[in-house]
Automatic annotation (TrEMBL), chain A:
This protein's UniProt keywords: Cell membrane, Membrane, Transmembrane, Transmembrane helix
Stated name of the protein: Sugar ABC transporter permease YjfF
CDD domains linked: TM_PBP1_transp_AraH_like (cd06579)
Record gene name: yjfF
Annotated signal peptide: none
Organism: Glycomyces endophyticus
Pfam family, one: BPD_transp_2
Source domain of life: Bacteria
Lineage: Bacteria, Bacillati, Actinomycetota, Actinomycetes, Glycomycetales
Amino acid sequence: MSTPTLTARPSRAAALDGLGRYVPIGATVALLALMYLGGLGNYRNFDNPQLIPDLFIGNAGLLIIGVGMTFVILSGGIDLSVGSVMAFSTMACAWLTVDAGVSAPLAVGLVLALGVVSGTLTGIVIHYFDVQPFIATLVGLFLYRGLTLQISAEDVSMRDVAFFDWGMTRVEFGGSPREGGFSLPYLSFLALAVVAIAFVVLHYTRFGRGVYAVGGNEQSALLMGLPVARTKVGVYAISGFCAALAGVVSAFYTKSADPLRGVGLELDAIAAVVIGGTLLTGGAGFVLGTVAGVMVMGLLSTIIAFQGNLNSWWAKIVVGVLLLAFILLQRVLARSGEKRRT
Amino acid sequence: MNTVLTRVRAAAGDGWASPYLKRLIWPLAVLVLLIVVNVAITGFDFLVPGVQDGRLNGAFVNILRRSAPLLVIALGMTLVIATKGIDLSVGAVYAIGAAIACQWISGPNENALGTVLIAVAAALAVAAVIGAWNGTMVAAFGIQPIVATLILMIAGRGIAQLITGGQIPDVNDTSPFVELGRGAILTIPVPIVIAAAVLAAFAVLTRRTALGLLLESVGGNPEASRLAGIRAKGITILVYLVCGLCAGLAGIIGAANLGSADANNGGLWIELDAILAVVIGGTALIGGRFFLLGTTIGVVIIGTLEVTIINVGLSSQWQFTAKAIVVLAVALLQSPEFRAFTLQPFRRRTPAAAVQEAAK
């Protein structure tokens, strides 16, 4: 960087640099508002107060997985195993409680612990053996899907386990839906708690700053003396935990385990993270952006359902177009950033 | 074994053959092991093909026939990976190619050769356009390959469903189209012929012209290649275009074999299998050197593995687990850090290394 450019326009460049970070997430929130207003204008009953809370019920699993994926992507990695780990966790819950007779809270604890251990092992393979994240998590994708199918190739019901009723117990806000209030089940609070904890960890702890630093430039992070190994293994452990938790939430939500649940869910999670404004190369983004990304995807299917004459495949195409738009937007921002600095 | 090796080496010229053969020896050993296991269980019928209804038949020929679409895709993927890229959209392009071909053909004219030719050409053209789009995103806009191709990986199956209108179009057994999947030329099944032709064409184009060298150069260091006067952008776009074309062709073969196109499940996870085959074949994901023959062996290993699991009496659910073990083993074997870690206790310590360790 030469001195003349430094003295030429320092204030404007600095201001833009600071605000540039918020452009992608701003675009996501604007898109979300636009979709909601468009829905209000076009469809009757779209103003139902239960509509927004419903997004947090049906998509609670995706939201939790998206939060874990945000950590991994911020650190510059990717985790393809989340869909399989989620399916395996649900199946393991069913197997432990229904067939093995383990008490339900213990089963849930075991499943969550397994998620952390499996994520940690993946992280160790990625960091210490320098295996690419794509390949290392591909192992998880195959392994856990295979194990799930080996436990049972058919649906297993958990209807007889009373513990799993607990998650869908609803809390009402402002009366019943007819009186303008809405209700949320406990599992949605679980998802929101995960988001809140992730927000605090990412923005107000050393570990969180480390995640951004490693994603921005691993070499620099190492030279600065940051604990790169702990951070990299940590993000995969978090993602494994989140995937297992999503599996538990899925057990609460459906009270059954389907061996083919969550096929391709890793793609939805990655899409939600990118639409939420996180850079896929790592180092920039917000966990609240992922929340917005999940809501965009949820609202999209809601609108398609309201429209009635559109088929479900339009959702895939629109998500693809949104991905393209956000990736190009980030690319343009990155290029203009490079130009300003040189 | 040794005499064969020396003979191959002498035939190909020692300097060229030795590094390539060295890379192929491990995948080849795994394949031979799998075949030996199968022969031990089911007898020599596994390997020796018979002739039935004017075409070859037998367990191993069937493996090759069923692996043909995967091989075509994996060969395209090899070239993409050689340029330091990756193409996640091949499964979706497979579905699109199959959807276009079947949708076009199914109708009153489905027995006419002209309809079939136009349908196949249309499917290939669209696949090539999609590939070129991927390549443009990577080369011209500078977007990471994994991100650029992710877009079509997600949207592609939606597009395929849009083409078929959510139905599964099917083609009658009387149409010449199904010959592409079930027919035979000189008793050899057509899919094997097509895949072999693609392999031969790629081998000639990359090993007998400068194209292969240019590819390895772009994969090794795109910026240095550009400075050396290589049109890195053009080559990158071309490679993705070819990969898209391969995926479309694979979709056509697959659809012809089934006589229908399933937009949701056709070619599901084939991108992962293709990447797996390329990696087993010794091509590293970091770009540079590539091994077409290694990829071919990798594809046959995956195909044989699936049959072996059934033959040794395990349920087909073991497939995923077995694949996971193979991926992990290959990834770890290729990691220098892992080899250093496991070989550490067996290595003679040189004085220099001892000093280094003491310094730590």
